[in-house]
Write a structure and sequence with these properties.
There is one protein chain. The chain has 12 helices and no strands. The protein folds into 3 domains: about 30 residues, no CATH class; about 150 residues, no CATH class; about 60 residues, no CATH class. The longest helix has about 35 residues. The two termini are about 60 Å apart. By secondary structure, the chain is mainly alpha-helical.
Length: about 250
Amino acid sequence: MVSARSLIISKHKSSLAKILGGSNPLLNVFSAVDAVLMVQIAFSLFVISIAYDVICGERERGTLALLASNPVSQYHILIGKYLGGMASLLVPLAIGWVAAAILINVDPMLAFHTAEWGRFAELFAALVLYLSVFFLLSMLISAIPQRSARALVWLLFLWIVIVFIIPNGAVYIAKQVRPIPSKSVVNIESAALRTAFKQKIRDYGAKHRSSPYFTSERSVISGSQPFAFHVLTGSREAMLLKSEVR
């Protein structure tokens, strides 16, 4: 079943590439529009939109002092805000994740196996951790300024840096530090290596042409192939017999 699915994907690889990239410049920038991209961009931005004023917003409205007057520790307040905000995010995300898994398993050709279910759960856990980092970062920034508008500006700047500048900048720097050779350069180097390898084979054959092991039971070796090749192609008994005769 897995091999059939791999065959289908490889068969339509070129058409999928056109669909995912094609002539649409937005798809070329953002790659394929899938669940991971939605969480990376849309959900992370949604996290900022609901968490940027969890502290400074209540400070502006005067409800933070009222909340602190209750016999509740600051840690419990922060944990409650974190759990409440993450619950509002994870509930729709989990529903969509389960719905996607059900739709995938409807088709018997794409049905998940045990290992794939594990990877599916690991991916969901990674997305939860990713959103949790953004929520905690939003809470941290929200506690610094006095006005929520300033916290929102800071968080949007950090969001652009984390989501766009760092990933693309890292790829650009890596290409500058260690450039990737083009396909033509790789083909030229590969052809040069093949030519050098064949030349070494010919030199080895010419050097050991007189060896008794270069005569197999099939034909007389011309010296164009290495010793190991003819040991494998000729029978062991024939090699030993020729050696004893000599």
